[in-house]
Amino acid sequence: MNKIKVVHINTSGIGGAAIACHRLHHLMLDNGISSNVIHLYNNYKPETEFHSLGYKAVRRYTNHLMYDITQRDLKPEAYVFSEMAPMASGIANHSLVQEADVIYLHWVLGGFFSKSDFEELAKLGKPVFCFTHDMWWITGGCHYAFDCSGYKVGCTKCPMHKHFSCLTKKQAEWKRQFYAKYPNVRLISPSDWLRRCADESSVIDKGRCDFIPNVVPDSIFKPLDKMTAREQLGIPQDKIVISFGTADNSNWVKGFVYLQEALNSIAKGRILLCVYGSDYDDELASKLNHPIKFLGRLDQERVAIANAAADLFVSPTLSESFGLTLLENIKCGTPVISTNVTAVPEIVKDKVSGYLVEPKNSMQIVKAILSFIEDPMKIDGTCDEMFSDNSIISRHIEVITKALTLDQ
After folding, report:
1. pLDDT at residue number 181
2. pTM given for the model
3. What is the CATH code for 5-216+388-407?
4. Which residues in the chain are classed under CATH 3.40.50.2000?
5. Could you give the strand order of the β-sheet that contains 354-357, starting from the edge strand earlier in sequence?
């Protein structure tokens, strides 16, 4: 039997979706699947199977102009809204796409995919799996709906737009027609919560989204010796180390302000906050009453070391499609404090692998931190079997095989 050929497509070579894309790609390679990755941007660590489409100046200018126009119409409290690119990339003509048996679309916005790109790709008739790293695939353009249920009824009146909420209605209607026209296009969600959201969405039929968790490599994210980890990162052995991870400290969805409020409510003592994923932030450091250490941007091996070095990981997130950093810490044996929202409870089990608090509630975070300091929770890195590499690759092979069988 010939190897199954898969091509993964993602706009950028960095960021959360890129991490998930690359890990799945490597897991497929390790399990005998021929896998390649195409990015729009050439901003990744070179590998044989990584390829860049290139972002020409004319497309960049046009796409950024469209982005600026749509963002200006958003209200200040809005998060992110994305229109599809106004100019086609021609991705369907790429040799790796033409040769592939199966196509995985990850995060393909940010000036990459236009409506015609989606159409031309779907017209190839090959199984296309759209990986829902956020809610964009099932809404009229927002990446997280939060308390809004408009995506269930066609996004007819978007509360995040000042004037042009018609944009969301038109995009939702286009998606509805697109999914209806191309049954070879399916969704994969990294959480059961997001799968249920897809089932409730007005743009796609119920049952066309499969739940398969993101990959957190078992060989890398596992319990390590805490003293050794701290020595490698220059972290004092006598501190109570609380960690927080994000690529962008200003991203309010990650909820850092609530961790900041919580820590500033606790008397100074042995607590040290370690932040990884972002560079030194003078403004952030100046607002905290406890010492802070920035570990910078780390590869996944160093992230595992940072997890092992911490006593406690805190993520006061307001929304998660999965919760990559949460599972990474739990697999490394580090308890987690996070919010009881969206996909988080599927990973963090209250009083078992960490503590669940209500969103935007810094005092509950204080209570959880103090409870941990008084009686430290010990976990051994064990998690549900569905998060194991073997289970995840088995599920992907299952949905790929089924899709290819139906295609014959």
Report:
1. 98
2. 0.96
3. 3.40.50.2000
4. 5-216+388-407, 226-383
5. 292-296, 271-276, 240-245, 312-315, 336-339, 354-357
